[in-house]
Amino acid sequence: MPQHTRYTGLIEHYRSRLPVSPTTRIISLGEGNTPLIQLENIPRLIGKDVKIYVKFEGLNPTGSFKDRGMTMAVTKAVEQGSQAIICASTGNTSAAAAAYAVRAGIKAFVLIPEGKIALGKLAQTLMYDAKIIQINGNFDRGMALVKEVADLAPVTIVNSINPFRIEGQKTAAFEIIDELGFAPDYHCLPVGNAGNITAYWKGYKEYSTYAPGLPAVVRGRPIMCGYQAAGAAPFVEGAMVDNPETVATAIRIGHPQSWDLAWNVQKESGGWFDKFTDEQILAAQKMLSQHEGVFCEPASATSLAGALHDISTGKIPEGSTIVCTLTGNGIKDPDIAMQQCADAKPVTIDASLDAVKRAILDNM
Ligand code: AN7
């Protein structure tokens, strides 16, 4: 008889490695367990002998990796008796916070930079019924305000300064080791607040030292590569950036909250930070869609833009196994997608068999 087990989210799956007790009420939407897709066409296209996998976090319940952290943060907020959560957000955190809050039956307040979050993220956050507070300032300003207001009002902060967020997000590294049987040589991530790169590193470190059921030789830890948008690259500049700008609005962040933690990841893993222009980021997003059938949001494509660059220069040598995290789903930002495909207008024809046939034969 086949065994039937329903997947009920990452807390249940990695329960022994997460800070929950047998009586904790788990707030979950079945997040995690996302596909690790091996790229087949792009390595051939660039003519390099590399194994590139993408961890497609856009397939989480609200369409981004934030769900991993939010299931944990909201579970703990509820356990500790909180009635409301709050975050500042470039869009994805607000969507995740809103969804997990309604699931838990508590309130969500989200501060977003007016006009600077992608349409899909705004739409879903409205649908999840969060209280949206738009500010005429950027994410960094919103984050500062959230930290101040949390001292004055009964709200739990669910940005990645909440340590439970990092706990949830570290499970992505567990999944990668579970699937490959070893850690990749390089792990590439887009970096904004730097919570996720911190979380992956924590996950790799915890899992590679003790992992039941893994082969005896488990390749320990990857070199961590953190890639930023050129106009929002404090880790590359070596200093905070006051007016960050990039088409990749998710990572339009100049004052990362996990500054020291991320520098520690870089040093411990022997990795590096680099920055890529909006053009390079958009080219990587399009390449992934058009050659692999994987549609991620612009910020997410920064990981592939960086990996391809470092493969081309040999900084990441041939023979390497590389994982790029694709942090969010492409359909979250329909405006950018339409701009990317402005030259590929749909053809409009007569609704006749002959016209349809001609449209096919003309385009074979
Ligand atoms: C798609 O939603 O900060 O380096 O407020 O949405 O852990 O901050 C989003 C960040 C990468 C950067 N890719 O991750 C927010 C927010 C996507 C993102 C990042 C974000 P961190």
Q: Can you list the ligands bound to this structure?
A: ligand AN7
- Strands across the major sheet, in which order? 1-2-10-7-8-9
Structural class assignment: alpha/beta
Average pLDDT, all residues:
96
Tell me how many strands there are: 10
H/E element string?
Answer: HEHEHEHEHEHEHHEHEHHEHHEHH
- Alpha plus pi helix count: 15
- Mind summarizing the main beta sheet? 6 strands, mixed
Summarize this structure briefly:
The protein is an alpha/beta fold and 364 residues long.
Provide an overview of this structure.
The protein has 364 residues and is of the alpha/beta class. Helices cover 41% and strands 14% of the residues. The chain has a six-stranded mixed beta sheet with strand order 1-2-10-7-8-9, with helices on both faces. Helix 3 (66-79) crosses helix 7 (163-169) and helix 12 (278-292) packs across helix 13 (298-313). The mean pLDDT is 96. Bound molecules: ligand AN7. Ligand AN7 binds next to helix 4, helix 9 and helix 13. Ligand AN7 binds at residues 64, 89-93, 160, 190-196, 250-251, 297, 299-300, 327-328.
